[in-house]
From TrEMBL:
SUPFAM superfamilies: Immunoglobulin (SSF48726). InterPro entries: Ig-like_dom_sf, Ig-like_fold, Ig_V-set, TCR_beta_variable. Residues 34-109 form the Immunoglobulin V-set domain. The keyword Isomerase does not apply. Keywords: Immunity, Signal. Pfam families: V-set. One of its GO terms (cellular component) is plasma membrane. Residues 1-21 form the signal peptide. This is T cell receptor beta variable 25-1. One of its GO terms (biological process) is immune system process.
Length: 122
């Protein structure tokens, strides 16, 4: 069964003793460029995720990691790679930017594994 965007927000909100942040916060680039987005977390969780959300569309899982040097591709990972050399960092690289990659990129971290089947708009 699917998980809606509203439920996704609830899963990753609430009282925490840590944070997840992305750098850079905003990025504008021409086509054909290599861009790396960094995701860092202070909770010490093993599980980290990279998503993209195109305008008016549902969240789409790109890559995920269950620990240092353990990364997996999702169906929509074409044109991007990830690296997880330290527990607190998960980097996403767009190898050669194209107009089709214009999107909102989001990272997340969780203590437990989150099953991803379909992320539907609310």
């Amino acid at each position: 069964c699917g998980i809606s965007v509203a439920n996704f927000c609830l899963l990753f909100s609430g009282l925490m003793d840590g944070s997840v942040s992305q750098t850079p916060r905003h990025c504008i680039s021409g086509t054909g460029k290599k861009i790396t987005l960094e995701c860092s977390q202070t909770m010490g969780y093993d599980n980290m995720y990279w998503y993209r959300q195109d305008p008016g569309k549902a969240l789409q899982l790109l890559h995920y990691s269950y620990g240092v040097n353990t990364t997996e591709k999702a169906e929509l990972s074409s044109g991007s790679t990830v690296s997880r050399l330290r527990k607190e960092l998960f980097s996403l690289t767009l190898e050669s930017t194209s107009l089709s990659q214009t999107s909102l990129y989001l990272c997340a971290s969780s203590e437990y594994t989150v099953l991803h089947r379909h992320l539907q708009p609310a």
